[in-house]
Design brief:
The protein has 267 residues and is α/β, with parallel strands linked by helices. 37% of the residues lie in helices and 21% in strands. The longest helix has 17 residues, at 233-249.
Length: 267
C-alpha cells in the first residue's frame, strides 16, 4: 500500500484526507492519505522517515519554506518562490512542487483572465504563489494591501524584481484604485465580514483563497450579491490537491474538481 500524508503544526482540521482518499478510491488505488502533526523541531526527523516510508506528502503552515532546505530539489514555481506544498518521493529522492501556484493559474486562466490590473490582499505564502501566477498570465500592475505594511513591501519588491509595477497600500476600506481582479490571500471573511467592497475597486473577477466548507465566505457573498464573477477557495484547495495527485501518480482523467466538491459538500 502507498502511504501519503499532510504535515503541519499545529495541524487543525484539514479537508485534504477527504479529497485525496476520494481520488485514490475513484482511481482504484491501494493507497491511503493521513494527517500528521510535525513540530518544527522534528521536521528533519520526519523527512528521513518520509524518504523510507512515504510515497509523497503535502506540507502546510509552518513548514512550506523550511522544508526546502531538507529535501533534494525543487521544480519550477516552487524553486522561484522558495516554497513547497507537495513533495514527491522518487526512489528515495524527495522533490518539491508548488501546486497552489498551479491551481491559481489554472482557475484564473479558465475564467479568461488575461493579465488585467490586480489587487492582492495579503502578503504571505499563498499571496506569493498568486503573484507568480499573475506574472505568468501577463499581469503588468499589482497593488498589494496587507495588515503589516512592511511585509506588503517585501512582496512588492519581489513583484518589482519580475519587472511588474507594484504599489503597497495599507488595509483600508477606502482607496482610489480600479482593478480588474481582486484576490484575497488572508483568512478575512471566514469568521467575520470582509473589510473591502470589491465593487469599490471596480473588480470584474474575485478570487477568494479563504474558504468555508459550510456556506460561503463574506467576500464570496459580497461578490455574488454584486453579480461579480468569483472563484472560491474550495475550488483552489481541490485543484491543488488534484495537481499533487498528478505529481505523485502521473496524469489521470477523472475526477475533476467539481466532482470532488460535490462529494465534499455532500458529506
Ligand atoms: P500566511 O503565510 O500565514 O499569511 C497570512 C496572511 O494573512 C498575511 O498577509 C497576514 O497579514 C494576513 N492575515 C492573517 N490574519 C489577518 C487578520 N486578522 N487581518 C488581516 N490580515 C490577516 O498564510 P497563507 O498560507 O498565505 O494563507 C493565507 C490564507 O489563504 C489562509 O486563510 C489560508 O487558509 C488560505 N489558503 C488557501 C489555500 C487554498 O487552497 N484555498 C491555499 C493556501 C492558503 P500579516 O502579514 O499582517 O500577518
Amino acid at each position: 500500500m502507498r502511504v501519503y500524508a499532510v504535515i503541519g503544526y499545529p495541524l487543525n482540521y484539514t479537508l485534504s484526507p477527504s479529497i485525496h482518499n476520494y481520488v485514490f478510491r475513484v482511481l482504484g488505488l491501494d493507497a491511503i492519505y493521513v494527517p500528521l502533526k510535525v513540530s518544527p523541531s522534528r521536521l528533519r526527523h520526519f523527512v528521513e522517515f518520509a524518504r523510507d516510508s512515504l510515497s509523497g506528502f503535502n506540507v502546510t503552515i509552518p513548514h512550506k519554506v523550511s522544508i526546502v532546505q531538507l529535501i533534494d530539489g525543487t521544480t519550477g514555481p516552487a524553486k522561484e518562490l522558495g516554497s513547497v506544498n507537495t513533495v514527491v518521493n522518487r526512489d528515495g529522492e524527495l522533490l518539491g512542487y508548488n501546486t497552489d501556484y498551479l491551481a491559481i493559474r489554472q482557475a484564473l486562466s479558465e475564467r479568461g483572465y488575461l493579465g488585467g490590473d490586480a489587487l492582492i490582499i495579503g502578503a504571505g505564502g499563498v499571496a506569493r504563489a498568486a503573484a507568480l501566477a499573475l506574472r505568468d498570465l501577463g499581469c503588468t500592475r499589482v497593488y498589494v494591501m496587507n495588515r503589516t505594511v512592511e511585509r506588503g513591501r517585501e512582496l512588492c519588491s519581489l513583484i518589482n524584481s519580475w519587472g511588474i509595477d507594484c504599489e503597497v497600500l495599507s488595509l483600508q476600506r477606502d482607496f482610489g484604485i480600479k482593478v480588474q481582479l481582486l484576490i484575497n490571500a488572508t483568512p478575512l471573511g471566514v469568521e467575520e465580514g470582509f473589510p473591502i467592497d470589491p465593487r469599490n475597486a471596480g473588480a470584474e473577477l474575485v478570487l477568494d483563497l479563504a474558504y468555508r466548507l459550510s456556506g460561503d465566505t463574506s467576500l464570496v457573498e459580497l461578490a455574488r450579491r454584486e453579480s461579480i464573477r468569483y472563484i472560491d477557495g474550495l475550488e483552489i484547495l481541490i485543484r491543488q490537491a488534484i495537481e499533487a495527485d498528478k505529481a505523485w501518480l502521473g496524469s489521470f482523467e477523472r475526477p475533476d474538481w467539481r466532482e470532488v466538491l460535490t462529494v465534499l459538500r455532500g458529506r
